[in-house]
Amino acid sequence: MEFTMEHMEKLVDLLRPPEPDVLQGDDLPPTEFEISSTRGKVPPPEEKKGPKTIEEFEEQEAKEIESLGKAGVGLGDLKTPEYTMNYQQSVSAEDVYLQIGPKTPSSASCENLIVRIKMPGDKKENVDLTVDTNSVAVVSSQYSLKLPLPHGIDPDRSKASWESDQETLVLTLKLDREFDFVNF
User: Fold this and answer.
1) Cα separation of 46 and 11, whole Å?
2) Which residues are bridge partners to 83 per DSSP?
3) What are phi and psi of 93, to 5 degrees?
4) In 10 A of CB 59, how many CB atoms?
5) 116 DSSP β-pair partners
6) What are the DSSP E strand ranges found in 100-175?
7) In what helix (H) or strand (E) does residue 88 lie, and over which residues does it extend?
8) Cα–Cα distance measured from residue 131 to residue 20, given in angstroms and rounded to the nearest whole number
9) Which residues are paired to 144 by β-bridges?
């Protein structure tokens, strides 16, 4: 077999070491431009300073708990609406006149928690309501409210309604307490 110049070039290409996947500074072909680096010139990002003592840790933890535990905290530039919370008790004639039922006038015998949230200038279509067993979150175009509840509720048996004339969201939350079987 005869080797031609073309065969020799192909052989050289086969025997040439492969090029690296990432070119390093020495592997780059020389150019008239200067390659420089900003490494070491940029300050390292500031690390979040943690507490150094137990007292600082407890103080920081107390501040976080306090900020999370504020009732009715709004989001960002949205306003926090006015709201009221009242207990509601289902009372029959036997309870009122005969007083033979186990119910008392205290909130321990109440079945529902009524939350009225006044949202003037807003519409029902703009309201986004989230209810879980321990809190209520209401967000609209103008208002935001995250409200922890004093008692656990049953979200599946609770109701929400909108009073258009008063621009008020009314939540009827069914209470779910440990000893309700005794009171009812």
Assistant:
1) 55
2) 117
3) -60, -35
4) 12
5) 84, 170
6) 112-118, 128-131, 135-139, 144-148, 153-163, 168-175
7) strand 82-88
8) 58
9) 139
Residue pair 82/166 in contact (Cβ under 8 Å)? The answer is: no
Q: For residues 62, 67, 69 and 71, what is the CA-based torsion angle, rounded to 10 degrees?
A: 150
CA atoms within 13 A on the CB side of 117: 31
Q: Which helix (H) or strand (E) holds 29?
A: none
Q: Give yes or no for residue 1 having a pLDDT over 70.
A: no
Q: What share of the chain is helix, strand, coil (3-state, %, to 5)?
A: 25, 25, 50
Task: Give the model confidence (pLDDT) of 4-60 as tens digits.
Answer: 888 888 888 888 877 666 656 666 666 666 656 666 665 666 666 677 888 888 888
CATH architecture of residue range(s) 72-183: Sandwich (2.60)
**Model pTM above 0.85:** no
Count CB-CB contacts under 10 A for residue 147.
18
